[in-house]
User: Which sequence fits this backbone?
């Protein structure tokens, strides 16, 4: 029974690592897409120095 639990734990750990890699990749892609879209938008008004 202990062998089954250790195999299950190993599978779960690998699944968690794969999920984390996928989420990081998605996050990086989203940030890259947002940064690519930012220059195309209207320029931000700079505060006046009065």
Assistant:
């Amino acid at each position: 029974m202990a062998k089954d639990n250790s195999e299950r734990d190993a599978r779960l750990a690998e699944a968690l690592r794969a999920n984390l890699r996928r989420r990081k990749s998605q996050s990086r892609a989203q940030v890259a897409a947002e940064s690519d879209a930012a220059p195309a938008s209207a320029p931000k008004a700079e505060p006046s120095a009065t």
